[in-house]
Write a structure and sequence with these properties.
Strand content: 5-15%
Helix content: 25-40%
CATH superfamily: Class I glutamine amidotransferase (GATase) domain
CATH architecture: 3-Layer(aba) Sandwich
Shape: globular
Order of helices and strands: EHEHHEHHEEHHEEEH
Largest sheet: 6 strands, mixed
Length: 226
């Protein structure tokens, strides 16, 4: 049985509590659907375990598509987001791939989670696939391999572009420029010619998608490798 570990956030707002954020639902829902169709077993983990808040903007048109709505309308699936596992409950050896979802919230709790870094490192070094979509790549910023090098250094990566932050009018809210931070770590950052179109990059066993609309393509590329 092929097993996928989805990573989601526990954070519900920006530095300014009057601006809510959370998991961008379609990024989980689209990937889940791709993996489910292939019969993969799926588990959800978050940095602190427990409940996952949803990004309000991901529940509005055009982001709230039929796949996201089907998840939101399904009590069984929504229950999965009330009781996610925390990293110490995860045995990396059980998983063939890890997939970091996004939403601006992950910028806060993904980068410095030692538990997530440990799981990612072990999956990677055992020959598994590491993947992310949109802001999920923030979870790869500080992950080091056993030899001390950064996982992303010298590798092709994509993720939510600074241009997209500006167009989404959250450039004044986000805690840092994720694209710039990724480049500073030696990653070979790429993006599509146009903002908000589906774009995914494969570099060996590292698979990354640029924005919410890239979730399905990213998951399909992970599935192909598996």
């Amino acid at each position: 049985m092929t097993r996928i570990l989805h990573v989601v956030t526990n954070v519900g707002h920006y530095d300014d509590p009057s601006h809510p954020t959370g998991l961008w639902l379609s990024e989980l829902a689209h990937a889940w659907e791709v993996f489910e169709e292939r019969g993969f077993e799926q588990v959800i983990v978050s940095p602190a375990g427990g409940r996952v808040p949803l990004e309000p903007r991901s529940l509005k048109f055009p982001n709230y598509d039929k796949t996201a709505k089907a998840w939101h309308d399904d009590p069984v699936k929504m229950a999965l987001l009330e009781n996610t596992k925390f990293p110490d409950q995860i045995d990396s050896a059980d998983f063939d791939a890890i997939y970091f979802t996004g939403g601006h919230a992950v910028m806060y709790d993904f980068p410095d989670s030692e538990g997530l870094q440990r799981i990612t490192r072990k999956i990677w070094e055992s020959g598994g696939i590491v993947s992310s979509v949109c802001h999920g790549y923030c979870g790869l910023l500080n992950t080091r391999l056993s030899d001390g090098t950064l996982l992303v250094a010298g590798r092709k990566v994509t993720g939510f572009a600074w241009q997209e932050e500006v167009l989404a009018r959250v450039d004044k809210l986000v805690p840092y420029n994720a694209e710039q931070e990724m480049k500073q770590r030696g990653a070979r950052y790429e993006k599509a010619k146009l903002p908000f179109v589906s774009y995914a990059v494969v570099d060996g066993r590292l698979v990354t998608g640029q924005n919410p609309g890239s979730a399905k393509e990213t998951a399909e590329k992970v599935a192909e490798l598996l």
